[in-house]
Amino acid sequence: MGCAGSSQTKGDENAKKIRKPKPWKHSQPITMTQLRQMRDEFWDTAPHYGGQKEIWDALRAAAEADITLAQAIVDSAGVIVQSADLTTCYDERGAKYELPKYVLNEPTNLIQDG
Question: How many CA atoms lie within 13 A of 106 on its CB side?
Answer without folding.
Answer: 12
